[in-house]
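TICKET: design request
STATUS: open
ATTACHED STRUCTURE:
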């Protein structure tokens, strides 16, 4: 009986639906990560700086990704389980806090819905197995990094570095590419943007990107191999340039205001995850 139930669960339609539901649930947690992780990092930096100065670290309210319970930032109303159902609760509450009626950002259901759709597509694309499981992990990490970078222009090492090692671990068994290609991809991904960073800094005296971008591209190279790096850099650069020019022209975005590059790397990485080989072949053909 257990084997029969497992075979039913692993049937493509049910597996796709299950991964979509899992994506919704994890997407809700990703909203917590996106909001709290930069705050936790800032608290740690203040504590480290105080320690270096020989001072007592300022007291901060205990904060982790799990505790305290989620609350409305305006009125401190605890979010109940019924108010925390992915997407549905936001729609039922009409995008407002049930207590103070302060608008709730639509980004919360957007993150949940994007996570669900991408996870369902990954299940459909790869089918049951380690490739689908790894794809879910990569998708969740890239979603979190995208929105954290939009908010803070930071790509936390606590996500990028484990992501890099996870890619090498999976490709130790050849899940997405060979181990040789993954190792070269990690090195080439980091060094390519590192070289661009220093060339730009030597020419202009300014920093064109952050070290987190190097680590994110290294992680993508570790997951998908060095072959996808040229296409990934090209796609992310084109989209970043178009968005940057659009913001400057239409949104009066100052030229001196930095634009995060991580979201475009993450978007190109997701495209490479699903269609890396055909896109790379098309790129090489055009070249």
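STATUS: resolved
RESOLUTION: sequence designed for all positions
ATTACHED SEQUENCE:
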């Amino acid at each position: 009986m257990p084997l029969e139930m497992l075979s039913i669960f692993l049937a493509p339609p049910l597996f796709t639906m299950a991964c979509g539901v899992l994506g919704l649930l994890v997407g809700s947690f990703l909203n917590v990560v996106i909001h709290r992780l930069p705050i936790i990092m800032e608290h740690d930096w203040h504590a480290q700086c105080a320690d270096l100065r020989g001072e007592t670290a300022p007291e901060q309210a205990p904060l982790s990704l799990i505790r305290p319970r989620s609350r409305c930032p305006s009125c401190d109303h605890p979010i109940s389980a019924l108010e925390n159902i992915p997407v549905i609760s936001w729609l039922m509450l009409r995008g407002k806090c049930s207590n103070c009626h302060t608008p709730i950002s639509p980004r919360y259901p957007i993150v949940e819905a994007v996570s669900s759709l991408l996870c369902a597509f990954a299940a459909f694309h790869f089918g049951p197995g380690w490739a689908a499981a790894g794809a879910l992990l990569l998708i969740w990490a890239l979603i979190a990094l995208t929105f954290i970078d939009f908010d803070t222009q930071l790509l936390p090492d606590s996500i990028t570095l484990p992501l890099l090692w996870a890619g090498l671990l999976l490709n130790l068994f050849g899940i997405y590419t060979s181990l040789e290609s993954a190792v070269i991809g990690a090195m080439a991904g980091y060094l390519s943007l590192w070289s661009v960073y220093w060339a730009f800094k030597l020419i202009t005296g300014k920093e064109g990107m952050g070290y987190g971008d190097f680590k994110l591209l290294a992680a993508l190279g570790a997951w998908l191999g060095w072959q996808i790096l040229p296409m990934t850099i090209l796609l992310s650069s084109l989209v970043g340039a178009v968005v940057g020019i659009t913001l400057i022209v239409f949104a009066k975005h100052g030229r001196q205001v930095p634009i995060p590059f991580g979201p475009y790397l993450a978007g190109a990485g997701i495209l490479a995850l699903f269609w890396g080989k055909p896109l790379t072949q098309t790129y090489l053909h055009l070249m």
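CLOSING REMARK: DSSP finds ten helices and no strands in the chain. The chain has a mean pLDDT of 87.
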